[in-house]
Amino acid sequence: MHRFRFVLWRPLQLLPVLFGISVITFVLIRSIPGDPARLLLGTRATPTALAKIRAQYGLDEPLWTQYLYFLQNLSQGEMGRSIVFKIGVLDLMANRILPTVLLVVGSVILSLLITVPLASAAARNRGRPLDHAIRLVSTAGLGLPAFWLGIMLIILLSVNLGLFPVAGFGDTWLDRLHHMVLPCLTVALALSAVLTRNLRASMIAEMASDQATAARARGLPERVIFRRHVLPNSLVPTINLLAVNIGWLIGGSVVVETVFSLPGLGQLLVRGIFARDYMVVQAIAMAFAVATVLINFLADVLTVAIDPRIRL
Amino acid sequence: MSVALARPRLRIPGLPVPLVLGVLLVGAWAVLAAGAPWIAPYDPIAQDLTVKLQPPSAAHWLGTDNFGRDILSRVIWGARIDLQIGFLGVIFPFLIGTCIGAVSGYAGGIVDNLFMRLVDIVLAFPFLVLMIAIIAVLGPGLASFYIAMALVGWVSYARLIRAQVLVLKHADFVLAAKSLDFGHGRILFRHILPNALTGSIVFAMSDAVLVILNGAAISYLGLGVQPPTAEWGLMIAEGQGFITTAWWITTFPGLAIVVLAFGFSLLADGLGELLGVRE
Amino acid sequence: MSDALLDVQGLTVMSGRGSVVEDVGFKVAQGQVLGLVGESGSGKTVTCRAVIGLLPTGSLAITKGSVRLEGQELVGLDPLAMGKVRGRRIGMIFQNPSSHLDPVMRIGDQIGLAVRHHIGLSRREARAHGIELLRQVGIPDPAARIDNYPHELSGGMRQRAMIATALACDPQLVIADEPTTALDVTIQAQILRLLLDLRDKRGLAILLITHDLGVVAQTCDRIAVMYAGRIAEQGDKRRVLTSPHHPYTAALIRCQPASGGGQGVLPTILGQPPLVGAMPPGCRFHPRCSRMQPRCREVVPPLEAKGDGSEAACLYPIEAPVLEFGR
Amino acid sequence: MSAPLLEAQDLVVQFRGSGGTVRAVNGVSLTVRPGETLGLVGESGCGKSTLGRAMMGLTPLSGGSLRFSGEAVESRTAWAALRRQTAMIFQDPLNSLNPRLTVGETLAEVLRVHGKVPRAGVAGRVAELLTMVGLRPEFAARRPGSLSGGQCQRVGIARALAIEPKLVIADECVAALDVSIQAQIINLLIELKERIGLALVFIAHDLALVRRLCDRVAVMYLGRIVEEGPTEQVFGRPLHPYADALIRAIPEIDPDRPLPEAILAGEPPSPLRLPAGCALHPRCPRAFADCAGGQPPPLLPVEGREVACLLYRPASVPA
Questions:
Q1: Chain C: residue whose CA lies nearest to A229
Q2: What is the ipTM of this complex?
Q3: CATH architecture of C1-89+171-259+268-327
Q4: Domain spans in chain C, listed from the N-terminal domain onward
Q5: Cα D232 to Cα D240: distance, rounded to the nearest angstrom
Q6: C86–A308: do the CB atoms touch at under 8 Å?
Q7: pLDDT tens digits, B54-96
Q8: Which of A167, B200, C197, C309 has the most crowded CB, counting CB atoms within 10 A?
Q9: Is residue A270 a contact partner of residue A276, using CB atoms and an 8 Å limit?
Q10: B57 in contact with A at a CB cutoff of 8 Å?
Q11: Facing B180 at nearest CB: one of D94, D95, D113
């Protein structure tokens, strides 16, 4: 299986990207206006106390030395403490990671469940009313603001019909899943619009492809051609699109978590920015970036598994 | 069966339907935005607590918010901001991305490698997260939004243009230009770029959709347009506290976003069809 | 030729802009190779797609004529019944094996899908059948190759694999659309040799579509020359190539440089073939014809039998033509 | 014999791919004299197109040297001088023209950049060039998308002629055209060759065309020239087994000539893993033990031409 050998060396290639991520995060966080020492000690701190804190955290040293400290701490799994919550950033994140993971995984699964049947139906009925309807809805769906869609779903399904909780996360697993339905649906609907258009287009291209014509010439029925030839070939570009959209998806979780008051990382990030809780913002931004890189890597593995021609 | 190369060909008599619809929709918003002072029935900012939280009626077609401001007027005035977001939020990334992508793809080698690593790094950050972080540094506001947009948004254009340039660099007509001893500038700007641009112009139209959504999301989070200015994302945020009692405050600005974004999507589809570009 | 396996008569295919194929008729008998020759746009590919019922729906449609396979009418057959003809009784080989094989499916599965569908073989039987087929089309080490993906084979091997998929259900007729155009000359000779061997062993009828008169001369029994959607001339290969009656056939043969030599300027045909929707009235070749008479602009020449067994569609055919070979 | 116009010595072009390094052109030497037509033939992947491009500097050389009109082509200015006197015609007639420019703009650009005619004379010269390649001057206003393949190729030739070249490199310039159009283009080349005294490097896989057009022919296999000599000699009695197979495989419109029996076994090996010794030996019907080892056989003079084959080693060459 030497096609999969890239699994070994590809992570090495990602090192410069990870390095760049850390530099950008570090520089961005240090550029945020406000003196960290004063934030730690409060406005009534004495100048000596401030100087002491600055020396203690290396804040009086040049930026690149500070960056080295930052890297050193990072390698020891030390990401600093939250000013607001007064606990270690990593502990804080560990408490908040579950809703975000559930949201991302749930919406990907849900969007595929929506996309594949819709795109297939549209492609197989190309030019008929059903196709036009699906195209119209998915094109309109491109412009759905996730936060607004979430609010509309809340008004419709929670407030009016009382089917789902309005906000929050819940305590038992069943309760949590119940709470996750609307947030996942919100993200999935917005994502499905992009995916459906893309999958429909590549299915139509595959149905008109030479190899599908050849399969027809072999007398295979349309449904067999669709399932065995068209679907596998058209999934590859859609998986790539999904991977490209992972960044968007994680970013979207920031907004959707705010709408549904989900205690996840995204909500923490937004609060951190308003509260100037820099260590938290820094850690979450890095975590999101690393997650994006890893998910794209997984998508590469999946693409290679589906398409034997691709070598990385 | 040999398949002829798809070539851009302007079919003037039969313009694609999506293009016409898109132009009409976006055009309608542009007219509303330009004529806001004359078209909007009320002042979008002036508060009138005597008519607060009124449902849609003959006097206030789309109802009023908790300060008694007319939603219709705020939606119409909001079009000014959101169209501006769609335009300025696209044009800077487009220009920066086109330059970087063209140089990177044409020069190749180390230059290309450096730029592409930079693209990888920027792409690694979830778009909105990076935007939020940059705006946090610059302070909330529209100007910060545009700067953040320019800093983050160029990567898509750079990648698109670079990919096109890489293909065109080996096209026979570019080799022909090289074999005729034409200079690099002439080859890049007269022979490669005009042919590479169609794809990214179409992409810019569909990107406008994303930019408008992002602008609204940033304002919704409180990092973009600040109250009391009328902007759709901000209006949705302001109305969220009243969803059980006054659904119209959030619903109509959201619909406005959907309709404008739909217009740009149609514009992108129609333009793509017209120019023979497939995304 | 009442015993023809494939009998095409008066076949007309229309597109939105006009007729792409008009009043085309030919026959192929068992064990016979018919070469359908023409330049690009002559309608030869559309003709063979019409025969196998694979015209793109919506843009092209058969409006007249009949296609009979062993007396059974194929035009107007419902999709289900046509599915039993395609692949089962008519196999098809395409020009470009790289794009006509599914890139993400193993060769064995592509053969297997067809035989399992048409003959109802089990997965295991289909695999054994596939290996045997690959052996017959001359692929070395077929038991290993059957698990390869198309991109893992060379161009020539890929075309052999495509031939194997066409032969999978033991069809009576094979339609080969420019089967060697994408290949190099030394490989081309190998593939043509394979087709002829298969014809001899299986008694296949072959409809060979090509633009290359050299390929026709070496492989076919009969030739039909198409120009602008119509048959210009057809008949026995030797007759048509050595004594063409239609000025187009004669000109086509003359403007092909012979490897045997000859220096200097080549004879050519003036101008370019007409486009669909802008066909000239009367004989479609008249604007480029050196023997054009006023009547050619008005009268559509019917395909008429000449004394030597050839048929030509020309009002003023070349009567005693002799072309020299072995120059 | 006149002084050579273009001399190539041991040209090497390497491509680094994912699977390793491919030597697309592997030590090729050849000479083109003024007014002469050299045919470069071989199957796909033999390196003939790469060689053509390398001679224009469109693909960087990894080794070897080039002389143009006696001057070594090394510096930027020397390449410029070569390109200002050498033009190229490409395979895909439509793709070789910028789709955004009209025919007139394409030709005028060349005239202006090369300063061939004063500004006022550009339009007239464009019309003249179009007439020369058999197109009406009105074609100047058309874009490539509205032209047929043959017409595009005529424009391509006109663009080549615009620089008033001494040498034209034509890369498979009729391969994409129909037979009747192909003959028109070949005739145009023959006519121009005689009228202007152009030297022509004609890269093609169609040997019959090469025999018709060329004075000398070089047969390539896997990056090397295996036989080179006067066209009539090579075609009349090819010595190298590959040249022989290639010439015998040309489909002839002769109904009495049967399909040739297996000419060469198998297919060319991957250029990534060339066999040792003569690259042809695994397929060669006349291979013997020595062919499988050592260096590839060098090109040596045999019977008025040059052949790279151990069958014609000096010791075994008949007198």
A1: C102
A2: 0.85
A3: 3-Layer(aba) Sandwich (3.40)
A4: 1-89+171-259+268-327, 100-169
A5: 15
A6: no
A7: 888 888 888 888 888 998 999 999 999 999 999 999 999 999 9
A8: B200
A9: no
A10: no
A11: D113
